[in-house]
Amino acid sequence: MHDTTTLAHAILSHHAATFAGFAPEPVPTPTSQDPVYLAALQACSQLGFIAHDAECLARAWHARALRTGSAQPEQWPDEPQDFGLQGLPRAQQFAACPERLGLYAVLPDAQWVGRMARAGVPTVQLRFKSDDARAIRAEVQAAIEAVQGTGALLFINDHWRDAIDAGAYGIHLGQEDLDALTAQELQTLHRSGLRLGVSTHGYAEMVRADAVGPSYIAMGAVFPTTLKKMATAPQGVGRLGVYTRLMRHYPQVAIGGISAEQFPTVLATGVGSVAVVRALVNAPDPEASAAALMALMQ
């Protein structure tokens, strides 16, 4: 099949329902006239993928066609090598964390961190917002003390220098924070031994995150969320499913607007962790809500 329009229609017909509503080996660079690349780019754009994700997918489709000798419109690309992801073992890799992080509570301060850790939540994140450097250092230290003796794994959002100084288990960075690191800062972070989680919002950002070999990949926002302004539309469970297949060699965290009612469909994609914020901090009985959500993850 070499006709661009025909191939694009074939891709759309096979996958439209899935996306309704929502230092590696280099990937071969297609020519602007390559029919597989052009068809995949056209189809992925029509499926609602933003420009840099549609481009990433089109390159992967082209790479797979070169590797297998077939465009395979019925099969969504999910082989890491076609996206240029690192091979195993990775040349770049942060310290490992559990494959399944379980319920992942994102919390506003150290008091909440301690409360949910004592409730048995296995993974907690301190997302403390402040411009006061002294207050940040104190809150990070208090959060680390709050989880002692609980068995909870504590990730610190953004404040990686304070996390290193205080001896945290890990840190979590967004894409902009990751991109802002200099090569020397990234080396410092890697040498610290901290685990690194990275937020991603689509294919291009997952490829970017893979280049540093994080400890886990967070994928979202799965559903609409009012907690932060998102540059991309909600990904939906269909996209989450194909993301988990591509990033299957990483621990994965689904995040963004996920309620208890949505846990079964989210977990059915294969993710090993679900992150929540409002489902705990806005709950009438946060401890009871945590217990119920952890039960859903069994």
From TrEMBL:
InterPro entries: Aldolase_TIM, ThiamineP_synth_sf, ThiamineP_synth_TenI
Gene Ontology CC annotations of this record: cytoplasm
Enzyme Commission code(s) on record: 2.5.1.3
Highest taxon above the source species: Bacteria
Thiamine phosphate synthase/TenI domain ranges (all copies): 110-280
A Pfam family hit: TMP-TENI
GO biological process: thiamine biosynthetic process
Protein name: Thiamine-phosphate pyrophosphorylase
